[in-house]
Amino acid sequence: IGSMVDPNEDFTWFIRDSTSDNLAPPIREVGMRASWWDRFAALCGVLFVGFFVAGFVLQGTSAPGPDTPPADIVAHYSESGSELKMELGATLVGFAIVFVLIFLARLHGSLRRVEEDRLLPSSALAGGIVMAVFLGASAAVGTAVVSAEGFYRAFEVDPNTALAFSTLWVWLLG
C-alpha cells in the first residue's frame, strides 16, 4: 500500500502563484534535503520545550500567592531549597534559550528559501529573539531575590520587594 520515505532522499516542492489555478505550471522549484543541521535544529526545538517547561516548573510552582502573609513570603525566599530550585530552573531556562535560538536560525533559513517576500522570515526571527530576551529577563528577575538572599549575608528579604519581583517575573513571561 505504501513505502517508507528515505530521510536522505531529495524532495522538490513546487511553489505556485496563489492567483493561478491548480493546472498552472510551478513558478519556482525549491529542493529540500533533510540534512544533519535540519535534524539538529528540529531536536533543538523539542529540547527548548522540554527545558523551558522544566525550568518554569522549578521556578514557579512554589512561588507565594497574593494572599500569602508577609512572614511566609520571607520564609519562602529564605529557604535554601527554594533558592536551589529557582536557580536550577533559571539555568534550565537559559539552556532553553540557546536551543530556541538555534531552532530560530534554521527556521529563518528555511523560510528564506521558500518565501519570495523576506518579511515572514525576518519577522519570525525577530519575534523569536524578542521572546528569548523576555524569557532570559524573566529567569533573571525570578531568581533575583533568592540569589541575593543566598549571596549576601546582610541581605534581608522584604516581602514587598519579593512580591514586586515575583509579579515582574510573571509579567515578563507574558
Structure, explained:
This protein is mainly alpha-helical and 174 residues long. 67% of the residues lie in helices and 6% in strands. It contains 6 helices and 2 strands, in the order E-E-H-H-H-H-H-H. A two-stranded antiparallel sheet has the order 1-2. Helix 3 packs antiparallel against helix 4 (119-142). The longest helix is centred in the middle third of the chain and has 35 residues, at 80-114. The termini are far apart. The mean pLDDT is 78.
Chart the SSEs and their pairings.
Layout: E1 11-15, E2 28-32, H1 36-60, H2 70-78, H3 80-114, H4 119-142, H5 144-151, H6 159-173
Antiparallel strand pairs: 1-2
- Overall shape: it is elongated
What is the N-to-C succession of helices and strands? EEHHHHHH
- What is the residue-mean pLDDT, rounded to a whole number? 78
- N-to-C CA distance: 48 Å
Radius of gyration: 23 Å
Low-confidence parts, pLDDT < 50 over ≥5 residues?
Answer: none
Count of helix runs: 6
Major sheet details: 2 strands, antiparallel
Helical content, roughly? 55-70%
Structural class label: mainly alpha
Summarize the structure.
The chain is mainly alpha-helical. The chain has 6 helices and 2 strands, in the order E-E-H-H-H-H-H-H.
Features:
single chain; mainly alpha; two-stranded antiparallel sheet; 6 helices; 67% helix; elongated
